[in-house]
Amino acid sequence: MEGIKGSKDRHFHINGSNFVLFCAIIVVIAIFTSINHNFLSYQNFINILVAASLIG
Question: What is the pLDDT of residue 43?
Fold first, then answer.
């Protein structure tokens, strides 16, 4: 479709600080999962989502 505005190629850009935060979250999840195998359980995930929704 030619002539449509906004049809540019979109690229996913991530800056350095966001990349570091993402890597830190992955490391924390890996550490807590290795310490406690129930960390990524369904019930714990629901509890984390409820706590996050209450805090905001």
Answer: 93
Q: How many residues are present in the chain?
A: 56
Residue 41 has pLDDT above 80, yes or no: yes
Give CA 14 to chain center in angstroms.
13
Dig out the tokens for 44 from the structure: 């714990």
Domain limits, the chain: 16-55
Q: What is the 3-state secondary structure (H, E, C) of the chain?
A: CCCCCCCCCCCCCCCHHHHHHHHHHHHHHHHHHHHCCCCCCHHHHHHHHHHHHHHC
Residue 32: name the closest of 48, 49, 18 by CA.
Answer: 48
Q: How confident is the model at residue 27 (pLDDT cuts 50, 70, 90)?
A: very high
Q: Rounded CA gap, 18 and 24, in Å?
A: 10
